[in-house]
Design goal:
Blueprint (H helix, E strand, L loop, with lengths): L1 E2 L9 H4 L17 H7 L5 H15 L19 H12 L9 H4 L1 H4 L2 H12 L15 H11 L1 H4 L19 H12 L8 H6 L5 H12 L19 E2 L1
Antiparallel strand pairs: 1-2
Helix pairs in contact: 2-4, 2-7, 3-7, 4-7, 8-12, 10-12
């Protein structure tokens, strides 16, 4: 494999050079510190982002789209701060992810600089225009549950917030959303926001399936999407 030294997927460095830390430490779920804080203060290096992403692509695919079956999530288009937090949490073993942990170790991808570099690179990848969606049989309930429970943090269109570390959930694969929601609701995802745990504690499996079916169908803005499902990441020349 040969890596190109230039990229058609350009990073707007100034937009992400100084991500804003959210005032969330009081809730306990995002006390940061360690690699997270260090990475957030660094200026991203585009080429190192490409090189680091090569490791990630073994599971998340070269386009960053993951798999519709939910085995691996779509990362493309995710907020920089969200990616940094999740990587730092996995490396600090604050989030259980035995599949990803060996690939995320400093010996594999480098230190805090590489966390910033790859997070910025991933955030700029165009998203899958045809992500995996649910069965579509209970969307009215799903829409109601979303508007009543999710928009306060994840936004009217599931866009999340970089500043507040709330993930973009629009365009995410349905099966991945279901698995993570269940783990958060049932206490298996240790780095989950306790406000969300409390908010969804009473959701039945039917509620969960309905709201995430609805969420999986919320499309990101057109400018964030790849032109087609045949899009190939130009930074990799096989």
């Amino acid at each position: 494999m040969k890596m190109k030294m230039t990229s058609a997927v350009m990073v707007t460095v100034l937009a992400f050079a100084s991500p804003v830390l959210a005032d969330t430490a009081s809730t306990g779920w995002n006390q940061a510190g360690g690699e997270q804080d260090e990475a957030l203060g660094l200026t991203p290096d585009h080429q190192n982002g490409i090189d680091t992403f090569e490791v990630c692509s073994a599971c998340h695919q070269l386009n960053g789209w993951g798999l519709p079956d939910g085995t691996f999530p779509q990362l493309a288009g995710q907020h920089v701060n969200v990616i940094i937090k999740q990587l730092a949490d996995i490396r600090a073993q604050n989030r259980d992810n035995p599949t990803m942990y060996p690939f995320a170790k400093p010996s594999e991808i480098g230190g805090p600089q590489s966390i910033m570099d790859v997070a910025t690179y991933i955030s700029q990848l165009p998203m899958n225009p045809e992500n995996g969606v649910g069965p579509g049989d209970n969307l009215e309930l799903g829409e109601k549950l979303f508007k009543d429970n999710c928009v306060r943090c994840h936004g009217e269109n599931g866009e999340g917030s970089n500043e507040k570390f709330y993930p973009r959930i629009q365009g995410q694969h349905y099966n991945y959303l279901v698995r993570q929601f269940a783990w958060i609701r049932d206490g298996k995802r240790r780095n989950a926001n306790p406000d969300m745990v409390k908010q969804i504690a009473g959701f039945s499996d039917e509620d969960m399936d309905a709201v995430l079916d609805y969420v999986s169908r919320i499309k990101p803005p057109k400018e964030m999407l790849a032109p087609s499902v045949d899009w190939v990441n130009p930074d990799f020349d096989w």
